[in-house]
Amino acid sequence: MSRPKNQNYKGHGVSKGKEREQRTLVRFKTTLMNTLMDVLRRRPGWVEVKDEGEWDFYWCDVSWLRENFDHIYMDEHVRISHFRNHYELTRKNYMVKNLKRFRKQLEREAGKLEAAKCDFFPKTFEMPCEYHLFVEEFRKNPGITWIMKPGTVGKKLTSLEAPAPRSSASNPSGSHDTRSSDDQKDEIPVENYVAQRYIENPYLIGGRKFDLRVYVLVMSYIPLRAWLYRDGFARFSNTRFTLNSLDDQYVHLTNVAVQKTSPDYHPKKGCKWMLQRFRQYLASKHGPQVVEVLFSDMDNIFVKSLQSVQKVIISDKHCFELYGYDILIDQDLKPWLLEVNASPSLTASSQEDYELKTCLLEDTLNVVDMEARLTGREKRVGGFDLMWNDGPVSREEGTPDLSGIGTFVTNTHLGCINDRKKQLRQLFHSLQVQKKTPS
């Protein structure tokens, strides 16, 4: 990045040339007082910076990013927790626009079969610009339930306030929205809405609707380099699912903040399952092969959605992003992308949740690698598996066989055993040995 014309900028970091030298002191800054702060403060060699002090690492909120990103100079090694225009993927109206454009591009360049791999989001129209197309579709398919979602979300409009889905276009609202209450929002007034077909046949467990929260870490868009975390969770509604009560938020919304207010909510039982438990449940009901197909379809969602914004996101070497993907599964075991969060909630709702988020954040910092300990050739770091590195990453060692003759298995392990502590011990031990061995 070049220095801004305004001379009042704050420079951040140390002199160039030291960027890959192993650092024992990392100055960090954040405004988030939750699990993240605990993890940052406990990290060996990391020191908290307050107010206007110089920093090497800043886990900022999106409003700070919008106001400051273009006005600061950052040294080579400095890292910040968002891409400049992250909203191309994380605002619903932009996400849908980019996915539609990418689908058309795939159809032109690779044919309809390849383009069909993008059919993982419900039929959606942006309001008000596609209102006439929506009305046409609405009349063509009477009786279908449609929901309205804010495309650009301000802090005052959260899923807590969103009424439940309605089948009437004239009284829209509603939501598959499943955010936790402190998922950060962009503080921009609501101007656009999307009208989206409501998935009326969700897969139910114990008669209850749920969605999945999955974590994807993007270190670069050009080239695309993305990691998938092994852990995540299913979030359940507290009340049995029915389409007869469209106004009941406890039936249709799965975010914990809403469910906690339910009169019959049990704090000890909670409303989350870890992804390992969910995967085991599905395997026992449908068999491991069916589950492999479902999880492979989810891998496709992660990769295609990132590819859809690859050319429009401003890829900056200082930036990384930890996305929270919300996935709904229907009765046919087809996964649907509901939304992508730029700032997934890092506040824990239980001890199990706290442990998951602590490990997730520790491993995010391990991949970001401010200490410059990694070689850059790793395919696994703790609970993260390298899913895409300018192309699909194979589970097998060596060059992947993409000819179609051999079997290519993507290097993803979502919902599988996460023996991260053991893996990190082995990884950092082998890195120490490599450094001691003379070349």
If you compute it from the alpha carbons, what radius of gyration comes out, rounded to the nearest whole angstrom?
22 Å
Number of strands: 16
The helix count comes to 12
Mean of pLDDT: 81
Largest sheet data: 7 strands, antiparallel
Q: Nutshell version of this structure?
A:
With 439 residues, the chain is α/β, with parallel strands linked by helices.
Explain how this protein is built.
The protein is built from 12 helices and 16 strands. Residues 1-11, 14-20, 153-182, 248-252 and 256-263 have low confidence and may be disordered. The strands form 4 sheets. Strands 10, 11, 12, 13, 14, 15 and 16 form a 7-stranded antiparallel β-sheet that branches. The protein has a 4-stranded parallel β-sheet with strand order 3-2-4-6, covered by helices on one side. A 3-stranded antiparallel β-sheet has the order 7-9-8, sandwiched between helices. The chain is α/β, with parallel strands linked by helices. The longest helix is centred in the C-terminal third of the chain and has 22 residues, at 288-309. 29% of the residues lie in helices and 19% in strands. The protein has helices at residues 35-42, 62-68, 87-90, 92-110, 112-115, 131-140, 249-252, 256-259, 275-286, 288-309, 351-368, 420-436, and strands spanning 11-12, 26-30, 46-48, 57-59, 73-74, 79-80, 124-127, 146-150, 193-197, 210-221, 224-236, 272-274, 321-329, 335-341, 380-381, 384-389.
